[in-house]
Amino acid sequence: MRTAAILVFFTLANLVFANNSKTASDLNTAANASYLSPLEKEIIYEINLLRSNPAKYAKKYIAPLARHYKKNIFYYPNDTPIITQEGVEALHECVRELKKATPQPILYPSEALTKAAADHSNDQSKTGKTGHVGNDNSDIKIRIERYGKWKVRIAENISYGNSSARQIVIFLLIDDNVESRGHRLNLLYPDYNLIGVSTNTHPVYSTMCVMDFAGGIVENN
Predict the structure, then answer these.
(1) Which of 1, 83, 86, 105 is least surrounded by Cβ atoms within 10 Å, i.e. has the fewest?
(2) pTM to 2 decimals?
(3) Contacts of 27 (CB under 8 A, 6+ apart)
(4) What was the pLDDT predicted at 221?
(5) CA atoms of 103 and 89, how far apart (whole Å)
(6) Calpha distance 38→22 (Å, rounded)
(7) Can you tell me the distance from the alpha carbon of 99 to that of 86, in angstroms, rounded to the nearest whole number?
(8) What is the pLDDT of residue 10?
(9) How many CB atoms lie within 10 A of CB 86?
(10) CA separation for the pair 147, 149 (Å, rounded)
């Protein structure tokens, strides 16, 4: 049986309200963002699908995955088995919390935030490192402030080893072995209106995705 190394997830933070009438077109806020790849656009759509109705998302997309656990090994459909720390209980806890969660504003893509996210993904695609500190010692605040002045609040999620938009979002929501569930909190935090996404290859985990969130940003001229 092949098993993947434990996926590593990190979070910086302790990190228009959507409703059931939102259409796929409404949620696809990144459709015309030419600076994003198809996968990056799909990730933003997936996050908006979650934020528009967390309870429905949990019931439809997360709860059915419980049958794919065997003890602490998660046999995610059509992917390499993953060794988890908490087993299926982390999934059950996630579903319970999402069923109680309130819908949040959908997110819109930001080119400045995407550039900041790309700086980090490009760096780690070369170095093979993980975490929020760049090879130049930059953190999310430094990277975002290269491209604009942010408002309200910022945060960053990073995932490693996931191959699809839905898998990226679901694994960050489950947040196995992350006591604070910080990635989940970032995905559902009400103050965020903008997001930047950058996907890349990674020497150790094959793939990676950086998401930068902000309440707003005034881009540099």
Answers:
(1) 1
(2) 0.89
(3) 18, 45, 48, 49, 52, 106
(4) 83
(5) 24
(6) 21
(7) 20
(8) 34
(9) 15
(10) 7
Range 153-171 average pLDDT: 96
Whole-angstrom distance, CA of residue 157 vs CA of residue 139: 12
Res. 18 pLDDT band, cuts 50 70 90: very low
What mean pLDDT comes out for the span 107-130?
97
Strands 148-160, 206-219: pairing is antiparallel
Q: Looking at residue 21, what is its pLDDT?
A: 63
What are the φ and ψ backbone dihedral angles of 89, each rounded to 5 degrees?
-60, -35
User: What is the rounded distance in angstroms from the CA atom of residue 181 to the CA atom of residue 161?
Assistant: 19
Question: 């302790």: which residue's tokens?
Answer: 14
Largest CA distance in the chain: 54
